[in-house]
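Same chain as my last thread, 740 residues:
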Amino acid sequence: MLNILNVAQTGLKTSQTQVENVMNNLANEGTEGYKKRVVNVSELEHSDARITGRGVQIDDVSRATNIYMYQNLIKAESTLSNIDELGSMLADIESIFYETEDSGFSADLDRYFNSIENLRTSPQNEVYKNDVENNAKVIVANLQTLYKNIEDVETTTLSNIKENVGEINNILKEIGNISQKIIDTSSGTPNDLLDKRDLLEKELAKYIDVQISREDHYELSIAGVTAVRFDTNVREVTVIENYIPQKDVYAKLDNDGKTIVPFQDSLISDTWNDNPIAERQVIELSGTSTNAVVKFLGTNVPTTVGANATTMASDIETNKGTIIAEWNKEHPDREIDDITASGSQITITYVDIEGDVPAIDNDESNGIVFSGSIESPGGQKGEVDSLTFVYNNEISLTVTKGEKIYASDGVTQIDINNDGVIDAADTVDETNVLKAMMYKINQSQDIGGNIKVYNGDYHLADDGEKIPTNDSRHPKFDPSNPNKDRYLVIESTTGGEKGSFTGEFIVNDSNVKNHQTKNESLSNKGIDDIHLEIYEKEISLTGGSVKAMIDNVKTDSGSNIFNEYKDKLNQFAKTLSNLTDSYIENSDQTYVYGTDEVELSSEEDKKVLLNLFSGADVKSLKFNTASLNTLTQDKLDYLATLQWREEVNFDGTGLNNQTFSQFYQTLRVEVADNKENVDFSQGAQAAVTESMQNAYDKITKVDKDEEMIQLIKFQSAYEANAKMITIVDEMLATLLGMKR
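reply #2:
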């Protein structure tokens, strides 16, 4: 009978605990992160001869959860957070491209083309010229504003990454603190601490993708890299900003695909073997002198009053020594070799290394009229081997065979062979042209130190020093000829995308012009390498809001929407600059459009220069106001065709040709489509996440109705066990009464 009393007592205690647990669940129904508790019971072990058992015992109080569902839920929430963040960034971009019917870049572009049409009707109308200038400058300003606004979003995004990483590290530290408290708990199951840790895990998953192991020790990983190990060992997440400068290498690879064939060996030495051709220009004289002195090419030439054109031409030939000396002193890049007279014509022969020399303008002095010079009959155009570097489609630097390179003072000759001696070997030829070009670019005030040129690739020392090829510490140092021409490496002095530039070399060997662009396989773009690391190990995120941010500030992520839109704007700017720089009008009144096509044409000498816009991208784009005064009717007729030209090749592939307006509208449509697609993905992912949350909540959340049913059940069990104690008490009382 006492055994019955003992069994009932265990049941009474268990039922009491279960009722208390139900009340605790109901009290915490609205507590954030609370998971309902379950009292786990088991039968007491049989330790004697009783066959009916010894009653019930409480094992522990656990949380209702499902680890598999939980891990998948936080993964879904991480994915949703990534999509939400991407949608927010796209909304910012969409607002940048917002337009109304009368305002925005599209309307500004239409106004510019309309102003060209107006000027075309009256090329000398100053009002129309001003209208073109204003509208052109508005286009440039608005393109640059669009570009800057995208850059501003990038800057804000990078700032948000740093803030979020700060939050991530705070959460990780708190998880470590809670884990320590769990370890320090001496009695019972710390369910409240486990709930708090789960809540922190879910908050962390909004930023990044996490994986959790709860086997022997608690371990939390971020994208597969351990962030918390052995319960409390927390590793900090760091933001790494590595801005890699653009490096263009002008060299070829040998057939083995590995060995570099220097630019000099592969092209210069093969082509720079022709003798230069001296240019001759003819000037026609007319009129009669009204003074005993007539000025020609800046020099006073003595003559007689009343001298006719033939006599004047003869007087000029007689005094050519003085004329040539004074001219060459003032024009070192257009030096004259000889002046001869024939009737009323003067023939000027330039020094053969000067190449193609600009014509001399019309002039008049004391009754003698000098018509503008033209190339001599037979078309003897001065040509000489030269190498030209074009920077950002705007600045050109040329090195010519036979040229001497001077310092910025224009007097001090440069020892381009670095042998300590100024001699004939320092005159530019096929053996030192690359060093000469290197010096010119590096000293150019127009380029302003934005890039630095090396003769061959430098060796990067452990301390970051860039060791040139003529330094004995360089692995490929050649002691027999340390200063030889190798190949050109041009590197931006500003790291990352901000230091990006465009460069091209033009090799003119007197007979053919070759355009040489960088070797893509040897070169690298300017890269903003923004990523996260734990203990110097890079994290490759697959979810969370920070992933969306990293993808769109890391230029080589493959998912950078900011770069995608900036590239499109750069394509627009570069194409506008190219098509308004020069053209060729064919005999059938069609055109060769733009400098890129003109330079590939066999009739390049028919090129018509416009130079209306210049620049290689949005940042370098500018409108050249001075060119307005050179716009003739023919030039305006050409410019007018650009508005409706449907075969404009913006991306260089020739597969997506369209008009300027269509290109910009396509860009705006792409922005809207991308936003719409992300919104659709967000809706779908939100539905998936909500479904998983609901399924998980059914397991973990407190259900009032269910708890009330449990309360009735446990209350009944309590009453039943209490009744058993009462019955045993009555039975014992009866037995004691019988004894008496």
